[in-house]
Specification:
Shape: elongated
Distance between the termini: 20 Å
Number of strands: 0
Strand content: under 5%
Number of domains: 1
Order of helices and strands: HHHHHHHH
Helix content: over 70%
Structural class: mainly alpha
Radius of gyration: 21 Å
Number of helices: 8
């Protein structure tokens, strides 16, 4: 048993990066990990087998990144609402009790273990949003990246690798976020049931 309610402990994380570092101690769902790895390999193989020009591949990447950006931002609003539900229904007495016990695997208090699980999903969605935005902004013919790549004597090969990395990152990343959304929905449900059980015990 340990108390995580001291001012230093509660405010120890000063940024989302600090939260992410701590959240890495929370293990991934095995199904999510292996399913995402399978999709990553499948998408990479598909890209290698595409019999279309590099310009057509780049067009696919641009169109998908634009679509994905809109979808992810919309879902981010949804999961923020889910987190608000969790924070609202969680009674202060229950959160205090959660802070006094350590999670067996992560060794974080149950309070931070639960909150970091939600925060980690937010971070993944934000990172993917930034990635999509970078693709939209820089994957433009004649843009900064295009100019820099053209300076290389093997520019065609670098361009192929960059487009391939964006293609795999966008599609596999979207699947990864779907797996995170699945777990997020369950965590919201589990949090509601925990709050109800706590109320019943009290």
């Amino acid at each position: 048993m340990s108390d995580d309610l001291s001012p230093k402990s509660l405010m120890n994380e000063k940024s989302l990066w600090d939260i992410y570092i701590q959240a890495r101690r929370i293990p991934f769902n095995r199904f999510n990990f292996w399913a995402t790895l399978f999709v990553l390999v499948a998408v990479a193989l598909q890209y290698c087998m595409l019999e279309i020009s590099l310009d057509e591949k780049l067009k696919i990447v641009r169109e998908f990144s634009t679509m994905a950006l809109g979808v992810v931002v919309s879902v981010l609003g949804f999961i923020l609402a889910g987190f608000t539900i969790f924070a609202t229904i969680s009674q202060p007495e229950m959160l205090v009790a959660m802070s006094k016990y350590r999670h067996d695997v992560s060794q974080l208090s149950y309070l931070k273990n639960n909150f970091f699980t939600f925060m980690r999903v937010f971070i993944y969605y934000l990172l993917y949003t930034v990635f999509c935005l970078m693709v939209i902004v820089f994957a433009v013919k004649g843009g900064l990246v295009h100019k820099l790549v053209m300076l290389s004597p093997i520019s065609w090969k670098i361009a192929e690798w960059l487009v391939g990395a964006a293609y795999v990152g966008l599609y596999a990343g979207m699947f990864f976020l779907l797996m995170q959304l699945k777990s997020f929905i369950y965590n919201v449900y589990h949090s509601v049931m925990t709050a109800i059980r706590w109320k019943a015990i009290q």
